Structure formats: C-alpha cells, structure tokens
Amino acid sequence: GYDLLSIDTGSEQRRDRVAGAAAEIRWGERRVGVLGQVAPEVVGIDRLAFKLYGLELDLHAIEELYAEGATYRHLSRQPAVTRDVAIIVPLSVAYGDLETTVREQAGAVLESLRLVDVYQGTPVPPGHHSLALRLILRDAVKSLSSDEASAIMTRVIDALRSRFGAVLRDS
Description:
Elements: E1 5-8, E2 17-27, E3 30-38, H1 40-43, E4 53-57, H2 59-67, E5 81-90, H3 95-106, E6 110-119, E7 128-137, H4 146-164, E8 167-168
C-alpha cells in the first residue's frame, strides 16, 4: 500500500510558486501542506542571488489527523528484497507520475519507494536528469524469490520506458 505521508509533485499549481517546482504534502488522502520554489514576483525583489523556497503546513489538519490515532499494521516475518534502479528521463516528467507508475506496476509487494539521488550533467543528455529509485519489496505471506523480484522490476522498468521514455542509466 501507499505510505501514510506522501508528496505529490504533479497537482500543485499556484501563482505564488514556480511552475513545476511545487508539491503538495498529503497525509493519506488529505492535503496537509505545500512546499516549493517561491515565484520571484511574489517577493517583490527583482533579482535574488538564490532560489527562495517556502513551506506551508496546515497544523489544524495535522492535529486532527494525529488525534485519530495510529493504525496498527502487522509486521511481516518475511524478508525484504531491496532493488535500486537509475533511470534517465526528460526534465518535463513529473516525479509524481513516475511514482504512481512504479506503485501500480510493483503492486501490493511494494513496501517502500524512495528517490535516493537526482543527477544532471555528463553523461546525462541536456534536458534530462537521472533519478535513482530504491524499491523495497516484501510479500506478507512468503519470501520473494530473486526471479519474482526480477519480474517485478522488469514490469516497472518496461512501464517507465513506454510511458515516459525512460532509459536505464549505466553504472
């Protein structure tokens, strides 16, 4: 399933933020905040020597959600399988769309998905960046074999290739 706290980079479009550099912070299905690069015209300063970022949190929403209490999730006795993959995609591809695709393709055995590195520069082509993703896979009732984990990763990579033109980065 999905992690309790998530960041959605695809849906946040505000006039006070730079397009493509903002994200919603969600707790389950509820929006609890927004973060991103502040548009220079909002600050009223023509030239900044640095990029300015802002974070807004809805503390009332967080307090309400926290008051609902934590839900118990049984810990699996099965071992986790960790797989890392580095892909090159156009800068125009939103991370939220990549994340959704990975979660759809990996299915219920995806315990965790993390973006662990972003790289631009040689040998990555101009207009692209390399994203390194770490997937932790775990089946609740049985150990995943290496072949099963590899089949899941093949599905994920094939979907990223077909939907976003992703290319595997050579190590």
